[in-house]
């Protein structure tokens, strides 16, 4: 069956394009993915549809109520495999985590706004996730990142299953550089080996490029990259 994302937000319009456009939208129409974008305000439980309240103890801004989130989650016909609370205080989002999440059937994502959620929401979550060490206005952009990274890992969502293979981080290294037409641009030519049709030589060149780029830009990735003895020789050369 499809991987279902239930996205809880105060601003559904922000998330709809990621669920309807481009390859993720196509995957949804094909039944490979399923999206519910759920307005938290519908579960406010009061006439004014008010979901937030001032912080206990005082201070600026407003805090989203835990009882509202509880009712919203309870509206799902079946409990999700994971309830992911988006917060700068969460576990850093990585390709590894995207791969784990792509094996689930149903993910619920909670997008905060304002000063965030009442901390007791953590009890309704199976996991807290941050997309990086910066603070955004709300969790929608973070949810979009997760939908984009996880959705494309489901079989059939991107055309060619091979194209995951060399993706940055999937292989443990940054991706190798690609070229296409024109063959010469501003004095920069396409490397000879890519035009020669020798597939073994092309594979070796690409692996060497991935190693060299990772060494230059992200040496922190190398200890966990599962390097072969030949890779190590390349790096030392
Ligand atoms: N006061 C909160 C703090 O410092 O942790 C920040 C609240 S932020 C203005 C509002 C909402 O944006 C958060 O509840 C969260 O859902 C989302 N958000 C902001 N930055 C995020 C990040 N780096 N990763 C995940 N979610 C984030």
From TrEMBL:
GO terms for molecular function: tRNA (guanine(37)-N1)-methyltransferase activity. Keywords: Cytoplasm, Methyltransferase, S-adenosyl-L-methionine, Transferase, tRNA processing. CDD domains: TrmD-like. GO terms for biological process: methylation. Homodimer. PANTHER family: TRNA (GUANINE-N(1)-)-METHYLTRANSFERASE. The gene is trmD. This is tRNA (guanine-N(1)-)-methyltransferase. S-adenosyl-L-methionine binds at residues 112, 131-136. Its EC number is 2.1.1.228. It comes from Deinococcus sonorensis. It is found in: Cytoplasm. It is an enzyme of class 2 (transferase). Residues 3-223 form the tRNA methyltransferase TRMD/TRM10-type domain. Its main location: cytoplasm. Belongs to the RNA methyltransferase TrmD family. It catalyses: guanosine(37) in tRNA + S-adenosyl-L-methionine = N(1)-methylguanosine(37) in tRNA + S-adenosyl-L-homocysteine + H(+). NCBIfam families: PRK00026.1, trmD. Specifically methylates guanosine-37 in various tRNAs. InterPro entries: Alpha/beta_knot_MTases, tRNA_m1G_MeTrfase_C_sf, tRNA_m1G_MeTrfase_TrmD, tRNA_m1G_MTases_N, tRNA_MeTrfase_TRMD/TRM10.
